Amino acid sequence: MRIGITCYPAHGGSGVVATELGLALAGDGHSVHFIAYTAPFRFGVYQDNVYFHEVSIIDYPVFHHQPATLSLAAKMAEVSQREHLDLLHVHYAVPYSICAHLAQEMLGGRIKTITTLHGTDITLVGADPSLREITRFAITSSDAVTAVSEYLRRRTLTEFDLDIPIEVIPNFVDTARLKPLGRCGRSCRDHFARPEEKIVMHISNFRSLKRCLDVVRVFAQVRRVVPAKLLLIGSGPELSLVKAEADRLAVMDSTWILGRQEAIENLLPLADVLLLTSQMESFSLVTLEAMSCAVPTVTTDVGGLKDVVLDGETGFLDPVGDIEALSSHVLRILKDEDLAHTLGLAGRRRAQQLFEQSQIVPRYLSLYEKVLAG
Ligand code: GMT
To answer: Is the CB of 14 under 6 A from ligand 1?
Structure first.
């Protein structure tokens, strides 16, 4: 198959899923064309069957805002025609689904479009009154729509008052790449923490929705009881507030701020617990990645996280903003090695059984085949 993929190239789960899907499809011999503003995050090194088409945007002084989405739609049509693409698979409804629809119209319908909904495209951006109707139109005009969790499927149907098929294809992980800490990883661990110290890790794009200050507050409580280090991975608008909070709570000297990291498989296994305090998650890829590394997770009990984490079996789910509950669960894990081990192994097993890349990617392929046959 000849597949066009568009995603947000910046740091974020949807871009990672789209990129890893594309690379996996290319590995299976399909021709994969990424059409985006910049090369996606985790794009990695050169691989056969993978092509990148950069969208260039006109910068004209009369325009208050650059017509980026029109340039993207035009590029989608151009690449589709030149490379004889069978379909355009866009990740994140707004505005990519509309761009794909426009490209489809430009080509007289000679290409199929598939939209994967990731979360905030529905819960935040798409639900905004200024974009609600166009998001609804985008969803209904796609040849097929997928959502990354049952929660997101239901939320989309309710939010937009729709009665259309949306297939749930969950996020996936390569459990061979994201795996528990090996012997050589231990020296890397020593770089961040002394042997008697535990590692609490948080990975996100540091937007307000992630409630990152809660991470610092939980860590401050934890560190009063257990010697520990906090590893913060990722970058985003709230990082400076996080640093200020870490200063205020006098835990800055125990906090590592590592910024954006591509090779997450080298860092995640170092964690004794992954802490995620989000107000909303439609899935949480990073939680799945932690489970794959046999790292227990303490997260909020929102949205699709409840489809990923089994409370008390692979980690713990606590109410949003409940610093006491989150801290006490982190502490339980850090103080009880047997419990940590059991939760970690159960998480890895769950990742292997339900979310393994080699099981999920073929589901996208079957959908492509169905759409092309229809
Ligand atoms: O908010 C983020 O973490 C970024 C966002 C994105 O578009 O990349 O993440 C969404 O998509 C991820 C991949 O499907 C999901 O794992 C995240 O849960 C989802 N974020 C939210 O729903 C807030």
So the answer is: yes
Beta bridge partners of 43: none
Domains 2-172+356-373 and 183-354 share a fold: yes
pLDDT band at 232 (very low <50, low <70, confident <90, very high): very high
2-172+356-373 under CATH 2.60.40.10, yes or no: no
**pTM here?**
0.95
Average per-residue pLDDT for the chain? 95
CATH fold, domain 183-354, is Rossmann fold (3.40.50)
Reported as a single tens digit per residue, the pLDDT across 176-226 is: 999 998 766 667 898 999 999 999 999 999 999 999 999 999 999 999 999
Kindly tell me if the per-residue pLDDT of 44 is higher than 80. Answer: no
Distance CA 87, CA 290 (A): 32
Say if CB 309 and CB 288 are below 8 A apart.
no
Whole-angstrom CA distances from 39 to 34, 112, 123, 133, 236 are 8, 23, 26, 30, 19
Atom of ligand 1 nearest to the CA of 304: 18
- Of all residues in the chain, what percent carry a pLDDT higher than 90? 87
Which pLDDT score, from 0 to 100, does residue 55 have?
A: 95
Q: Which atom from ligand 1 is nearest to the alpha carbon of 305?
A: 18
Distance 191 CA to ligand 1 centre (A): 30
Domain boundaries, the chain: 2-172+356-373, 183-354
DSSP notation for 280-344: --SS-HHHHHHHHTT--EEEE--TTHHHH--BTTTEEEE-TT-HHHHHHHHHHHHH-HHHHHHHH
* Shortest-distance Cα residue to atom 12 of ligand 1: 13
Contact 297, 330 (CB under 8 A): no
Of residues 125 and 112, the one with the higher pLDDT is 112
